[in-house]
Amino acid sequence: MTLHRTGLWFIAVGVAAAITHMIVFALLQDRWWPELANAAGFAVAFGVSFTGHRLLSFRDAGTTVPQSLLRFGVTALAGLATNEIAFVLLLRGLHWPSLVALFSALLVAAGQTFVLSRHWAFRR
């Protein structure tokens, strides 16, 4: 699959996962600490993200499903770490509104996740 097609699918799946993440966050943010609501959103969105990337973005992956799942799990956790750091800096340090901080943090983590997914988790 071409980089262009892979990139388009990656964006589509990423948007679906980000929307899932933000919905879970929005439902929990008034009951939980924002950082925990963010982690819960990540956990739910992980299933959307892995399934979509395995079936669409990287369907010609040169790895088995268990290999991809393990590698993508590591990739996603690295993305969560980046996301949480950016989220906390924007929310607590710069006092941005929570949904704006979350959206911005998701964008930062998305680039990292694409590179690690393409070149390692779903390596061709």
Task: Provide the succession of SSEs.
Answer: HHHH
* Averaged pLDDT: 90
Low-confidence sequence ranges: none
Shape: elongated
Strand content: under 5%
How many helical elements?
A: 4
Rg is 14 Å
The largest sheet, given as strand count, sense and whether it forms a barrel, is: none
Number of domains: 1
**Total strand count, please?**
0
Q: Could you give the distance between the termini?
A: 10 Å
Class of secondary structure makeup: mainly alpha
Helicity, as a percent range = over 70%
Any descriptors?
124 residues, elongated, mainly alpha
Description:
- This protein is mostly helical and 124 residues long.
- The protein has four helices and no strands.
- It has one domain (3-121).
- It has helices at 3-28, 34-57, 65-93, 98-121.
- Helix 2 (34-57) runs antiparallel to helix 3.
- The longest helix is centred in the middle third of the chain and has 29 residues, at 65-93.
Short description:
The chain has 124 residues and is mostly helical. The protein is built from four helices and no strands. The termini are close together.
Write the layout of secondary structure elements.
Elements: H1 3-28, H2 34-57, H3 65-93, H4 98-121
Helix pairs in contact: 1-2, 1-4, 2-3, 3-4
